[in-house]
Amino acid sequence: MKVLLTGTAGFIGSHVALKLLERGDEVIGIDNLNDYYDVELKKARLARFADHPRYTHIHADLADRQAIEAAFAQHRPQRAINLAAQAGVRYAAQNPHVYVSSNVTGFLHILEGCRHHGVEHLVFASTSSIYGADTAMPFSEHQPTDHPLTLYAASKKANEAMAHSYAHLYGIPCTGLRFFTVYGPWGRPDMALFLFTKAILAGEPIKVFNHGHHKRSFTFVDDIVEGIVRALDRPPAKNPDWDSNQPDPATSGVAPYRLFNIGNEETVELLRYIEVLEQCLGKKANMELLPMQPGDVPDTEADVSELINVTGYRPRVSVEEGVARFVDWYRAYYG
Question: What is the pLDDT of residue 298?
Answer without folding.
Answer: 85
